[in-house]
Amino acid sequence: MSDPILSASLVARFAEIVGERHALVAEADIAPFVSERRGLFGGRTSLVLRPGSVEEVSRILALASETGTPVVPQGGNTGLVGGQTPDMSGGQVVLSLSRLDRIREVDVASNTMTVEAGVVLQRAQEAADAAGRLFPLSLASQGTAQIGGNLSSNAGGTGVLAYGNARELCLGVEVVLPTGEVFDDLRKLKKDNTGYDLKNLFVGAEGTLGIITAAVLKLFPKPKGREVAWIGLQSPEAALALFALASDRAGSGLTAFELCARIAVDFSVRHIPGIVAPLASEHPWLVLMEISSGRSAEDARALIEEVLAEGIEGELADNAVIAQNLSQADAFWAVREAMSEAQKPEGVSIKHDISVPVASIPDFIHEAGAAVLQAAPGARLVTFGHMGDGNLHYNISQPEGMEEQAFLARYREVNDIVHGVVRRFGGSISAEHGIGRMKRDELIATAPPVATDLMRRIKASFDPAGIMNPGKVI
Amino acid sequence: MSDPILSASLVARFAEIVGERHALVAEADIAPFVSERRGLFGGRTSLVLRPGSVEEVSRILALASETGTPVVPQGGNTGLVGGQTPDMSGGQVVLSLSRLDRIREVDVASNTMTVEAGVVLQRAQEAADAAGRLFPLSLASQGTAQIGGNLSSNAGGTGVLAYGNARELCLGVEVVLPTGEVFDDLRKLKKDNTGYDLKNLFVGAEGTLGIITAAVLKLFPKPKGREVAWIGLQSPEAALALFALASDRAGSGLTAFELCARIAVDFSVRHIPGIVAPLASEHPWLVLMEISSGRSAEDARALIEEVLAEGIEGELADNAVIAQNLSQADAFWAVREAMSEAQKPEGVSIKHDISVPVASIPDFIHEAGAAVLQAAPGARLVTFGHMGDGNLHYNISQPEGMEEQAFLARYREVNDIVHGVVRRFGGSISAEHGIGRMKRDELIATAPPVATDLMRRIKASFDPAGIMNPGKVI
Questions:
Q1: B228-262 burial string, b = 16+ CB within 10 Å, else e?
Q2: Chain A CB contacts of B154 below 8 Å
Q3: For residue B108, is pLDDT > 80?
Q4: Cβ-count burial of A61 within 10 angstroms (0-12 exposed, 13-18 middle, 19+ buried)?
């Protein structure tokens, strides 16, 4: 390792703010903060700061501004696009929000909860549940991911269909600006038209404009009934028709509609212990559908049975099975949640997090599939995702028997093919994971210059010294 | 009138873009564009441009930028805060979006509609209806207000409780920037995390950052049943408890919950022809509640009956009457919709468009009422509004027999009293009408400097020449 870029005196000044104990300088202590779990976006630093209060965050950023020191905010370090780790320069300080983990308030009457950035998502869900409410943001990484990161990346997940993404679940934010000033906008208001929408700029900015230190989150009534079914069908077109039917019958009671290619289910069953095939019969496509009712368990049951009966009668669905109890419902969801993990034993994969208009999902699947297979014969299209949101995790496992590196060498080429199809449908190359480091160059290369120019102007006006998470987003 | 600030040659250059016919210069033609219907925020200009295409809007703004000519975008001219009219200088060109009135597409399968800025809201509703869908934005001025203005002011109205405000109903925008560049972000995506949220900056910016020329709007399934009831009750506290009960039972099927002081209902009945008292009995407070069902008319009926029965049994409500048919439902709504108009024959009023957390509505009503009556004894508190959104039109009619000017002289003082109480509850002084000219000074004086500073930075970076609707918002 070369000499650290951060001088000893600067490290000492930062450490003084949080106290020695919370300024990590030993390589072993730093290690968990400079890589992420897939090992894709590693970096270096000689300082990780773990402030314990908003005031400490403020003092850190004021010092960073004064000294021109870049700061990388980090939550649960579960991001998938490298937004939360430092670069290889060694000159970026990591600021972990983990110690800002207070649930400041649960306001049952206003259906809001005010939490700090470092609160783990699952803890926020549990606090809402204990108050008789639902906080519907739900992700595979919820046991580790933190609210600050969820908001900074505008997280999606499986609850978006009925409740919206992280942006829509947030009423107000508290943000420390690059200067150290605190922007306190922790409002519980459903309506507020006093000037520009600053909240939505910080949400989704991946820590490049300031650091979200707390937020007011929306709570919802807990559903009184929830029913989950796996459904076998012949095509994405049938799934789209079934989605339209279910939306019509259940309205906002349709709380999940996940489309999965058969191979995605097969991988889960084959590789993940305890995962059981949801349907005895074989179908090229499967849908995991969840219907909830605010009225009663019986109501949810009657509604899902009605949708499935109509779907089968209308020849949209071949077959379906409804979970008979809570543990079976969890087992049904486990099949879906295991899909990402289950691709690993099948070799390397080239991944995409795309969205298109919901009605274009079938055409996208056909066009992208044909284009990928022409370029990479034998590649396995492990298509699954949140069809109701128009969002697919369009993941492509390597052909069987191919050298891993040979397939990975084509990552960019396959990305370009898939993203080209996405663009033809007016879609997004980052539906829910963000831009981070991974997609920054592609965003700049392919977004309309007028859009990236506006983003650069915002960045320059909010963070003129360029200390906030440089190298990410824009 | 003094010599026009806009030179003849400049007027000619602008006129050449839209054609003589659509460049209004005669005083009589200009008159409707320089005042608004209440006559509060008049101004002057010697040129109103009515472009017929996005390209013409682009050329106008390019010329405006080149020549430093301020431009005031205008839709249906129904705004309530003076955001859409020019100042008294005579040097601001009015740009009317009325001719950009194409409904470009209704995409039933994706539940979206792409419309131009000049489409009148009611026409957008009707186009959605004709396609078997609901566009839920609903305002008293919907027969005149245009989509561009609705989005620029982030309009609220009666559909917010279940469907959100204009911001939440908009998936994508097309915007002409001050330079004339076109930012085309007309996406139909529910999820898109590619960089900063530019859409939500333009929505609600009241034309100060650019001109929205088209938008992608969300559509929803049409409810299959809709039931409306007037309910008599004793207090705002009882209304809050009833709201909690109705939310719990009906969830997103609770599509309106409007709280009205008895005097507001009395004014409507007294002054507006055809308005009939909704309840025979007398109650200090009334609620207009609407429950919709995506399933059936019977379902909506059963649900509203259940809520009312429980509310009356639990002594939250004294009495209630459900509309027996569509025309009675319309008549029920008419009582509510007439309230603003019905204040006029009672003399002048001092108005507020405020929001507080829903749970704080009762305390707000008591505290604000006490403070206002102490300062202005005999003032009549004509409180009504969207309680379910925490949003009240807190309008105060003058004491009976008082000189109008004597009451109006106290406008600012009473505003300050009410807004002071709003701030104590963490509320907003502009819940749904925006800032415009009316509340600009107050926003700047009372918002945290860190917030107004960020807004100024955005304004300066998007519109460095300051040509976009100057004097509004910030």
A1: bbbbbbeebbbbbbbbbbbbbbbbbbbbbbbbbbb
A2: 193, 197
A3: yes
A4: buried
Q: Which of A197-206, A460-469, B36-45 has the lowest mean pLDDT?
A: B36-45
**Could you tell me which residues are beta bridge partners of residue B183?**
B175
3-class SS letters over chain A: CCCCCCCHHHHHHHHHHHCHHHEECCHHHHHHHHCCCCCCCCCCECCEECCCCHHHHHHHHHHHHHHCCCEEEECCCCCCCCCCCCCCCECCEEEECCCCCCEEEEECCCCEEEEECCCEHHHHHHHHHHCCEECCCECCCCCCCEHHHHHHCCCCECCHHHHCCHHHHEEEEEEECCCCCEEEECCCCCCCCCCCCCHHHHCCCCCCCCEEEEEEEECEECCCEEEEEEEEECCHHHHHHHHHHHHHHHHHHEEEEEEEEHHHHHHHHHHCCCCCCCCCCCCCEEEEEEEEECCCHHHHHHHHHHHHHHHHHCCCCCEEEECCCHHHHHHHHHHHHCHHHHCHHHCCEECCEEECCHHHHHHHHHHHHHHHHHHCCCCEEEEEEEHHHCEEEEEEECCCCCCHHHHHCCHHHHHHHHHHHHHHCCCECECCCCCCCCCHHHHHHHCCHHHHHHHHHHHHHHCCCCCECCCCCC
For residue A423, which residues of chain B lie inside 8 Å, CB to CB?
A: none
With contacts defined as CB-CB under 8 Å, which chain A residues touch B194? 428-430, 435, 439, 443, 447
Beta bridge partners of A229: A289, A322
C-alpha A180/C-alpha B232 separation (Å) is: 51
Q: Which residue of B has its CA nearest to A389?
A: B190
Taking an 8 Å cut-off on Cβ atoms, the answer to whether A452 and B195 are in contact is yes
**Residue in B192, B248, B461 closest to A457 by CB:** B461
Specify the pLDDT at position A40. 86
Mean pLDDT estimate for chain B: 95
Q: Across the interface, which of B192, B196, B356 has its CB nearest the CB of A205? A: B196
Q: Give the model confidence (pLDDT) of B342-363 as tens digits.
A: 999 999 999 999 999 999 999 9
Confidence label for A3 from pLDDT (cuts 50, 70 and 90):
very low
Question: Mutating which of A194, A220, A353 best tests the B interface, going by the most B Cβ atoms within 10 A?
Answer: A194
Q: Work out the minimum CA distance from A462 to partner chain B, whole angstroms.
A: 7
Q: What are phi and psi of B233, to 5 degrees?
A: -150, 175
A37 — pLDDT class (breaks 50, 70, 90): confident
Contact A467/A68 with Cβ under 8 angstroms?
yes
- pLDDT at residue A4, as a whole number: 56
Q: What is the pLDDT of residue B2?
A: 42
Task: Using CB atoms, pick whichever of A182, A194, A197 lies closest to residue B430.
Answer: A194
Q: Please report the pLDDT score of residue B1 as a whole number.
A: 39
Give the mean model confidence (pLDDT) for residues A19-28. Answer: 97
As a whole number of angstroms, the distance between CA A322 and CA A199 comes to 40
Domains and CATH numbers, chain A: 8-96 (3.30.43.10), 103-221 (3.30.465.10), 225-341 (3.30.70.2190), 343-432 (3.30.70.2740)
CB contact under 8 A, B451 and A195: yes
B32 CA: distance to closest CA in chain A (Å)? 26
| Contact flag B355-A451 (C-beta cutoff 8 Å) | no
Cα→Cα distances A396→A107, A266, A346, A385, Å: 44, 14, 11, 13
Q: pLDDT tier at B251 (50, 70, 90 boundaries)?
A: confident
**Do the chains contact at A474 and B195, CB–CB below 8 Å?**
yes
Cβ-Cβ contacts under 8 Å, A240 against chain B: 109
Distance from the B134 Cα atom to the nearest Cα atom in chain A, whole angstroms: 12
